[in-house]
Amino acid sequence: MENTPVQVITGLFHAISRKLPLIVDWDTAKHHHLLNSDPGACDAMEEMRDYIIAHGMYGPPRNLSF
């Protein structure tokens, strides 16, 4: 995602406020309309989905206790 344009990242943040399926359930053929059929945003969702499926989590576990 290092090469992803800022507009795509901004679009993904905008999409957070919409009712998107879980990232692991993303299917561009079914859900593209939720991102206004933006190919860059859909590609980013697919890339994130593939990463999460391959690695099994969003990121390293965090200790959030204070």
Q: Could you tell me the number of beta strands?
A: 0
List the total number of helices.
Answer: 3
Rg, alpha carbons = 13 Å
- Average pLDDT level: 77
Chain-wise SSE layout:
Blueprint: H1 6-16, H2 28-31, H3 39-55
Helix pairs in contact: 1-3
Task: Give a quick set of tags describing it.
mainly alpha, 48% helix, 66 residues, globular
Descriptive report:
- The chain has one domain.
- The mean pLDDT is 77.
- 48% of the residues lie in helices and 0% in strands.
- It starts with 5 loop residues before the first helix and ends in an 11-residue tail after the last helix.
- By secondary structure, it is mainly α.
- Helix 1 packs across helix 3.
Can you summarize this structure?
With 66 residues, the chain is mainly α.
